[in-house]
Amino acid sequence: MSIEKLQPFLAPSYENFPKGRTIGVVVLRTTQSETIFRTEGTGEPMCSEYVQAGVQNTESISRLVMTKRKQVAPERRKGREFLRSHELLYTAPKSDSICALNTNAPCEMCIDCFLYGFAAGGEGAQKSRVWTEDAFSVLPSTELIGDRTINAIFETGTMRDEKGNASTALNTSEYIKPGVHFLDIVTLKDVTADELRYALGNILLTSRYGAVSSRVGRMENQILGIFGGIAELPSSLELVQGVYDKLAADGKALEHPFKTEPLIAAAKSVIATWTNKRGISMQLSADELDALIADVDRNWSLNEQETFLKRLDRSYASLRKVKSEGKKKGRDQQQEE
Amino acid sequence: MPQLELLLAESDSKLPFQTARLVELWCAEPVFFASRELSDTYYTEGTIGNYALAYALGWARSPYRLTGQDTGRPRYLEDLTPLAEQCYILPAWHIEGNASFRFERFNALSDSYWYAMTNNRVATAREDLPLKRTGKKPNTFRPSNFPQTGRLRMIERGNRFQTLVFGDREVPEYIRVGKFTSKVRVDLLRKLTITPLPQGEYRCNAYLSAADIPSSLELLAFDLISMPPVSLLKNLRFRGAAWQVGDFILPANLKFCGGRNNE
């Protein structure tokens, strides 16, 4: 089983102090519908950033940005759907209600709290062990953005109501076209094998990102590579720049819509050179990666999901229990000696 | 530089030092001493104590590691009293009379994945959290005497102090002082001669270390700067023998710890 191969970089159980074990996951995120990533509010332009086109190609271009929190928030929510259904969310000490994001009252005990962290709880804070990065589009943003006008008509089917008043519901908004590729690196720190399965499952199962995601924002995530090491992978910007150089060198026309296959090939050839660079000691081979994904799928399957999540939940059990007094005293005495 | 030149022969000569030098200390960095501790704020007084300066000038060195009995007590007697007759330095006073300060916040956050800010302390033992929930106070949550968060009042960069160095030992151009070993430049301003003055009533216009004054001296009035390890006196009026050093008048026979040996 390929998860065995990652063993040196996986924690045997949750530990409170970092031990320098890093799993790097290279993710290709492809929009499947119109998608909206903006930070400034309705009607504002999409998030984009001027960056160098490639590592060699020093011309600057504007790239779409999928910010860190726009990735991690929907992915956390996806995992929590299952925790809720299996009753693995705990009661928050601060509010006496079930653990919920954004309420300032995390339960501090569930899988999500342990893995993705929390702050501003009743008792202390937990740092996230899932590190995200801003993901960039491969192509320049000018190619990838369209405009939509939205109007909400009255039931008469016109923009005027029965009294003749004009509708104010008229707006033009930018969107990211379908078929846009974002390349992304997710870093997992000191996770256990089951935590790795949980985090990968969240990435693979999440299908909606950004604004108005009940209407738009469909996205497909694909895992292109998994690394184990003692340090982080190169950044997602370096990845996207490397891919840009590669595509430009191959003489491919860089215009939208861009085929996914050559992009994956380019990305894989870029990350293939990352082994033994910056403390990255090992990349899963294509077969091992497939086996790992199959392993994740199996654990998340309807039959095994409950066992898997409860097993992961149990792994934190000792940290939720009050230590027996006798044992505690013994430890204190040891410290005093 | 010789470390501890044990010169125990007590000479009664009236003038152990022929000359003194007026030096200026310029703070190249903010300087911090924990002179006073109020709640979670740690105050530096607007002066630099002479014991600190004696160590900073390289006259004595405290060992990197203390063992046995030494862990619980200072070594001023062993380190500084042998210096009597060779050199002495006064506490440094601010040139304009009032040092300027800056406040800094510090928190020594943990590198653990889970931590909690508790009383004067950062708790990192996640396994103690359930015990805490039961209403008990686990050890790791109790206030600590080892501050990990708080505020520092430190002497601002650029402050200038003056002091007198007795004896003719060479003085380094730069010294490092304070809890954070901040860099301080040492400029020699003037060489001054020491003239003994007869018994009488005088007013001292320098800062003095309370422990270094001869026990026979009659103190009439003074302002006290209360700080460890030795409180300082300023604006002292005294009756007794005195030294005239340039424009400064000081009680005669100042010695580290009053010249006491191990008592």
Describe this structure in words.
The complex is a heterodimer of chains A (337) and B (263). Chain A is an alpha+beta fold and 337 residues long. In chain A, 34% of the residues lie in helices and 21% in strands. Chain A contains eleven helices and eleven strands. Chain A is globular. Helix content of chain B is 6%, strand content 39%. In chain B, strand 2 and strand 3 form a beta hairpin. Chain B is elongated and about 75 Å long. The two termini of chain B are 27 Å apart. About 4% of the residues of chain B have low confidence. At the A-B interface, strand 4 and helix 10 of A face strand 7 and helix 3 of B. Strand 4 of chain A pairs antiparallel with strand 7 of chain B.
Q: Could you write a compact summary of the structure shown?
A:
The complex is a heterodimer of chains A (337) and B (263). Chain A is an alpha+beta fold and 337 residues long. Helix content of chain A is 34%, strand content 21%.
Structural features:
heterodimer; A: 337 residues; alpha+beta; eight-stranded antiparallel beta sheet; two-stranded antiparallel sheet; 34% helix; 21% strand; disordered C terminus; B: 263 residues; mainly beta; ten-stranded antiparallel beta sheet; four-stranded mixed beta sheet; 3 helices; 16 strands; elongated
Q: How far do the termini of chain B sit from each other?
A: 27 Å
Low-pLDDT segments of chain A: 326-337
Q: How is the main sheet of chain B built?
A: 10 strands, antiparallel
Task: Tell how many strands the DSSP assignment of chain A holds.
Answer: 11
As a whole number of angstroms, the C-alpha radius of gyration of chain A is: 23 Å
Number of strands of chain B: 16
Assembly level: heterodimer
Shape of chain B: elongated
Structural class of chain A: alpha+beta
User: Gap between N and C termini of chain A, in Å?
Assistant: 46 Å
